[in-house]
């Protein structure tokens, strides 16, 4: 018997379990995979970006212009400062990079996860792996386990089931069938885009593109991106991917620190016998990959080449498949939840993390959002069960 069951052992689920454990409740975390935090660990392979240190207004803007009340409340209670204090409380000092991104000093997720699991064990939290949730039978939770079908009737439940990308790490979105009437369709978020490159781009496949600005809709990014055999990917693209997915045209500013007038003046310098590529290298300090992109998407060149350089239309053929996306949009809609993240039609069942219908760019926002909603769901579930003592 257990007071609370948390389904899903990613950041949101583990944070919910921590809050429930701190409230003195008996807690079981159930996860379908053989081990916990798999997507969390994968995110940490290139350096675990846990949050973004920046002014509140800029930080909240990353989650959209109009956040649901519950999401805004979760972020207000557990924002960048709180994430930093939480990580350091687990024995993992952090540092802030030049762009405001915050990382554990060790640049890995595994030490943080080990410390977190040790804390949960100290709180009496039990973790069951290879427990795959299969919905409800009457009021009981149904799990497929190595020992067969199990039923559980906790007093409170927190669902932290993830989105619908990276199925091999446990996020496959299949849980949506059990809440179908309240689900917004999943869409890829923070994803790459398909580009059918011409042969002349072959030497540049795998090359990073730096010192450019990408604009789609009302979003502009100065982040780096990668030219891959299949298209484009990387942080610079992810920052504008929502607008691109929704139909906005992508343009590149190949000289973002220069005005149009300065760019035009430099191009008007005598060229002599130099080729155009050499001229661009000399007067604009273009790299070979910048020149290649200009040729790929700009030919035939107009008379006013400077204007093209400042706003180069970039042709793509839509997002890469959803399972390759870093995260997903869509999921359980907030209108079906109370402001403390409880499903209105299922008293005692709370939800958190990427399974909810919100999205944010990479750069620390995703993990912070999962931690914050997990904390709110867990503390709300504890208050629901023990209203006088929490």
Order of strands in the sheet with most strands: 6-2-1-10-21
The CATH topology label of the largest domain is FAD/NAD(P)-binding domain
Strand content: 15-25%
* Helical coverage, percent range: 25-40%
CATH architecture of the largest domain: 3-Layer(bba) Sandwich
Keywords:
390 residues, alpha+beta, FAD/NAD(P)-binding domain, 2 domains, 5-stranded parallel sheet, 21 strands
Entry summary:
By secondary structure, the protein is α+β, with helices and mostly antiparallel strands. The chain has helices spanning 11-22, 38-43, 56-61, 69-77, 80-89, 110-122, 235-238, 241-245, 260-267, 276-284, 288-298, 305-310, 365-385, and strands spanning 4-7, 27-31, 51-52, 94-96, 101-104, 126-129, 132-137, 140-145, 148-152, 156-159, 183-189, 193-194, 208-209, 213-216, 219-221, 225-228, 231-233, 250-253, 312-314, 327-332, 349-351.
How would you describe what is shown here?
There is one protein chain. The chain has 390 residues and is an alpha+beta fold. It folds into two domains: 4-188 and 326-385, FAD/NAD(P)-binding domain (3-Layer(bba) Sandwich), CATH 3.50.50; 193-314, no CATH class. Helix content is 31%, strand content 22%. The strands form six sheets. Strands 6-2-1-10-21 form a five-stranded parallel β-sheet, with helices on one face. A four-stranded antiparallel β-sheet has the order 12-17-16-13. Helix 1 (11-22) runs parallel beside helix 6 (110-122), helix 1 packs parallel to helix 13 (365-385) and helix 4 (69-77) crosses helix 13. The mean pLDDT is 95.
